[in-house]
Amino acid sequence: MDQAKSAKQTLTRRAFVRGTGLSAGVLVTAAACTPGTPPAGPGPNQSTPTGLTGPTPELQLSNIQGNILAGFNKDHQRMLFFTFPSGLAAKQLLSTLQQQVANSEEVLAFNSSYKAAASSNSPLPTATWLNLALTHAGLTALGVSRSDLQAFPDSFRQGMRARSGLIGDSGPSAPSNWITSNADHAVVILAADRLSDLSDAARTATSQIKNAGGTITFDQTGAAREDEPGHEHFGFKDGVSQPGIRGVTTPNNPDDPNQGVPGQDLLWPGEFVLGYPTQIPTGDGLNVQPGPLAVSGPAWTTDGSYLVFRRLQQDVAGFQSFISGTAATAGMSEDLFGAKLVGRYKSGCPLERTEDQPVGLDTQLADPSILDPSILQEDKINHFEFGDDVNGNVCPRSAHVRKTYPRDDQTPTGGEAASQTHRILRRGIPFGASYLPESSNALHAADAAFPHDRGLLFLCYQSSIERQFEFVQNRWSNDEDFPTRGSGEDPIISQNASGVFQIPGSQAQQVTLQGFVTTTGGDYFFQPSIEALQLLATPQPAAAPTQNPAGRPPRNPI
Ligand code: N7H
């Protein structure tokens, strides 16, 4: 692909950055819509049998906040929710904070340096990052004009609480039980490799907010699990499958120029960042050519993205006892039963066979990666489809990963091209201490107010909350008739605690589910570009900025 490496010896931007020994560069595109590399020829799992490859879009990486396209990917994170002071002080506070915001160019550069250092056993660089996102009420507090405020889509204008009926947050998950504030204006997302750096950054941001007259409404810490890094609290490896992004992800499948690592389809960046082409099919049926540009809200939303945050509490003891109680009845090992619910084993190994997996390995007997750990390598772990398993005999059609991304399945909401328009960039991190049944209660009582309070800080980015997060939650996960009548609800995130789940195959079962994930907070945010933050922080004109920061032509509506 026409991607050029721009070498960066040091990360100098922002006082927060403490890079050491950084030498590798960030991959950025060389030119707008340059033709891509010709295909190497047909291969397995190839999504473009004609060998077509799309043009490469040029992204304004230095104008796009870093967590969106790069992902902070840090072991220590903190989210400071706050309200602005009134009047001009709101803009002054935004001005102070926006100067510390890390962009996608520097976070991508850091991440590739970190990866290079890790693979060569060199000292690991460290960094501390800050990003900032605003609610609709926050934009109002910043004096954005009425017409611009009204231009935003309903989901963002209304916020997550008001949308609870649509996404199924009822019963214990109802907003009346949430512990997050119902009047946030903004959230500062902090991330660091070292806990001490995170604490310093949080102390600085907190005093900046308070000194300016703002109020911290909720302070949430997240951290990778020390006992099982990379795994969420139920024990499964998380962050395994992410969409590739044209112009950001390096094509790395010799058999398919439209994939990053094998199995990772490259999507148009407008799925995640406003102002760029979307994945919406244009007629080639393969989404290889750019779809219409992503437009949402006023022109200055270009290079911004919508952030969905959900504080999802996990009942680990309940989940484990459900698995051990039901697996035996279902005639399966606990490992296999858990994999049937999720679609992957705890190791991350998919239930479906991956390309080039040794023929003798039966995914129904046990986790095949025990015998062949190479299945867990990044060029294999996502190299599978569901199309050969139409009835879900191997991976149930309502398993969490199949519900939330049906890959090549034909479904009532469309085939693969349509499903690619409902993808999200997940940036979650666990919160709370690990559940360790054998340890004393002291560990579980780490938070006196919520002694069993652990779970996932679910964050995801998209260009349309309705078409992406809400669609996945409401139309796919919560619907027991998706993809086929009675196939069941998503056993992990469906909000109906007593739903059913079908396990077809030789050990066919219908399982009655219980609720193990409870929503305890959340909201919808808009994460503006760096330039838009600067414009929003500028006292004059008093009304909102109306120009398009990148100076690009007007967009077609999606
Ligand atoms: Fe899910 N889990 O531990 O079971 N998720 N998730 N998720 N999830 C995934 O690929 C989990 C949640 C998606 O491309 C894996 O990272 C838990 C919400 C999507 O193949 C595991 C919670 C939503 C994918 C989990 C939770 C999604 C995905 C497999 C809440 C959206 C990628 C590893 C506590 C509405 C699908 C991986 C693909 C994967 C778990 C929440 C969506 C293990 C515990 C709220 C799109």
Hetero groups in this structure are: delta-meso nitroheme
- Tally of DSSP helical segments: 15
- Could you tell me the radius of gyration in angstroms? 23 Å
Number of strands: 15
Mean pLDDT: 86
Secondary-structure element sequence? Answer: EEHEHHEHHHHEHEEEEHHHHEEHEHEEEH
The percent range for strand residues is: 15-25%
**Terminal residue distance:** 27 Å
Unreliable parts: 1-50, 541-546, 553-558
Q: Helical percent range? A: 10-25%
**Cα shape:** globular
The SS-based structural class is: alpha+beta
Structure description:
With 558 residues, the chain is α+β, with helices and mostly antiparallel strands. 23% of the residues lie in helices and 15% in strands. It is built from 15 helices and 15 strands. It has helices spanning 66-69, 88-98, 104-119, 136-141, 146-150, 154-162, 164-167, 195-211, 316-329, 334-342, 400-404, 416-419, 441-444, 466-477, 530-537; strands at residues 3-6, 26-29, 76-83, 128-134, 186-192, 215-223, 244-245, 266-267, 305-314, 425-426, 429-431, 455-462, 500-503, 509-512, 517-527. A hairpin with a 5-residue loop joins strand 13 and strand 14. Helix 2 packs antiparallel against helix 15 and helix 9 packs across helix 10. The two termini are 27 Å apart. The structure holds delta-meso nitroheme. Delta-meso nitroheme binds next to strand 9, helix 11, strand 12 and helix 14.
What's the layout of helices and strands?
Blueprint: E1 3-6, E2 26-29, H1 66-69, E3 76-83, H2 88-98, H3 104-119, E4 128-134, H4 136-141, H5 146-150, H6 154-162, H7 164-167, E5 186-192, H8 195-211, E6 215-223, E7 244-245, E8 266-267, E9 305-314, H9 316-329, H10 334-342, H11 400-404, H12 416-419, E10 425-426, E11 429-431, H13 441-444, E12 455-462, H14 466-477, E13 500-503, E14 509-512, E15 517-527, H15 530-537
Parallel strand pairs: 7-8
Antiparallel strand pairs: 1-2, 3-5, 3-6, 4-5, 9-12, 9-15, 10-12, 11-12, 13-14
Helix pairs in contact: 2-15, 9-10
Delta-meso nitroheme (N7H) is lined by residues 232, 234, 236-241, 310, 312, 314, 342, 344, 400-401, 404-405, 424, 455-456, 458, 469, 472-473, 492-493, 517.
